């Protein structure tokens, strides 16, 4: 029998109390290897809008692309895995979508693009799936259908890779232990081809989660070969089950490519704006900084939170500075209006900062003293006078550049500084390489 292309999209199988959609992909792929299927690409791990209120951890969906001579059998097998492993009792709302065609409907790509920056209702996904008469399955409220449909329609413009290692089931929920020295050394040796593994400023491991899910650690980088080498340098003492390498949009800034509509300032929307600082920043007791910008005659309130460590930049802004900012819109509360929580500040143009000082006596090399209100100024030595104060320009402590949070405060999609000037590239998938391994 001839083989057919089959796209598989899976989302929302996890909960805050356990499971992980990438681990389910690891289980499914290991099972599919026993069937007569060809893997056509790395499994895709696509992170969508991080400002969705009901997301678990990184709001990521998984896509698998294969060819098979028995798509019906594969669908039933995958459906069985989703039923068995989804943590529905703790709030998971899994969605599973199959697209049995090389040509993916255009609506999938549109939904995927929208899901990157705004809130999408599950009914939108259901309409698309029903229109094209595609097989799908869900549990709970079916919100996972949005990610499961979107991951199939996602088009990579920039791509990174992540090697996720998984624990044996007997270790789930137990404390993870890694040698900081080895992780730090790995990052130094593999830079700039890996990112966000270790925070040298805080002496903190970043590649290891802390929840009860099956992931032990995840190394992110530019290609699979580097990730395999990096993983070997970490040398965990715990015996692991195996690993799987995903192609991903992590570290690409994908969710901030949309320009926010200031006239339709919807909660949970992500994106960017360019405007002029219209209000001097204020600092709260907790060290958070608030200011406002004007965009198309609309005032937008902005917030920069202490953990980002870009509060020091925000504090130095003055009225008139031209900025490009990006982040997510927080919904209004009884005490606060809708506000844009910033993930970066890019200073486009600095306003000149100045202050008025008493005039300077060139003869005596001293500042003059005031003679009294509206009476001008006079040098106490030579008695030379002047009517007005002088304007002195002050050197700004910030520059016209982009400022992003410290690495510990990065989200999955935050683009690290080292990637900002890189040209997007792709890696050809080799099904015979070590992209999945069981120990």
Q: Which properties best describe this structure?
A:
single chain, 439 residues, alpha+beta, Alpha-Beta Plaits, Glycinamide Ribonucleotide Synthetase, Chain A, domain 4, OB fold (Dihydrolipoamide Acetyltransferase, E2P), 4 domains, eleven-stranded mixed sheet, five-stranded mixed barrel, 26 strands
Describe, in plain words, how this protein is organized in 3D:
The chain has helices at 21-32, 71-85, 106-115, 122-131, 144-153, 180-190, 224-234, 311-315, and strands at residues 4-11, 37-39, 44-47, 60-68, 95-99, 136-138, 160-167, 194-195, 198-199, 204-205, 215-221, 240-248, 270-283, 289-295, 298-304, 322-330, 339-349, 353-357, 360-361, 366-367, 369-370, 377-378, 385-386, 390-394, 402-403, 436-438. It has 439 residues and is α+β, with helices and mostly antiparallel strands. The protein has 4 domains: 4-155, Alpha-Beta Plaits (2-Layer Sandwich), CATH 3.30.70.2200; 160-253, Glycinamide Ribonucleotide Synthetase, Chain A, domain 4 (Alpha-Beta Complex), CATH 3.90.600; 255-350 and 396-412, OB fold (Dihydrolipoamide Acetyltransferase, E2P) (Beta Barrel), CATH 2.40.50.1010; 353-394. Strand 22 and strand 23 form a beta hairpin. The radius of gyration is 27 Å and the shape is elongated. It starts with a strand and ends with a strand.
In short:
With 439 residues, the chain is of the alpha+beta class. The protein has helices at 21-32, 71-85, 106-115, 122-131, 144-153, 180-190, 224-234, 311-315; strands at residues 4-11, 37-39, 44-47, 60-68, 95-99, 136-138, 160-167, 194-195, 198-199, 204-205, 215-221, 240-248, 270-283, 289-295, 298-304, 322-330, 339-349, 353-357, 360-361, 366-367, 369-370, 377-378, 385-386, 390-394, 402-403, 436-438. The model has no long low-confidence stretch (mean pLDDT 95).
